[in-house]
Design goal:
Blueprint (H helix, E strand, L loop, with lengths): L16 E2 L9 E3 L1 E4 L12 E3 L2 E3 L12 E3 L2 E3 L12 E3 L12
Parallel strand pairs: 1-3, 2-4, 3-5, 4-6, 5-7, 6-8
Length: 102
């Protein structure tokens, strides 16, 4: 799978659904699209985000401690003073980055 250069290149792009409410403590999201939202001062630690996308989101002073982001697209976001301590961020498998035998 080639590296994604735009949100439309994501394999899960057709499944993304716009999310309009702000996350709360322990929320779980699968294929959620957070677009042009403000998470300013949101307290949503322990959240789980799977195959989701954040674009144009302001995380200013948001508290997302101990959250888990698996295969998540983050683009054009502002994260001033955001707390992501003890958060896990894992990318999906990227075959283009794997070593190939010569």
């Amino acid at each position: 799978m080639p590296e994604s250069r735009s949100i439309e290149d994501l394999p899960y792009f057709p499944h993304l659904q716009a999310e309009e409410h702000l996350p709360e403590q322990g929320d779980e999201f699968d294929t959620a699209l957070f677009q042009d939202l403000s998470f300013e001062r949101v307290h949503a630690g322990g959240g789980r985000y799977l195959e989701s996308a954040f674009t144009g989101v302001e995380f200013d002073h948001a508290h997302l401690r101990r959250s888990r982001f698996n295969d998540v697209w983050i683009d054009n976001c502002r994260m001033n003073g955001a707390d992501f301590a003890e958060t896990s961020m894992q990318a999906g498998r990227n075959q283009s980055a794997e070593r190939r035998p010569s």
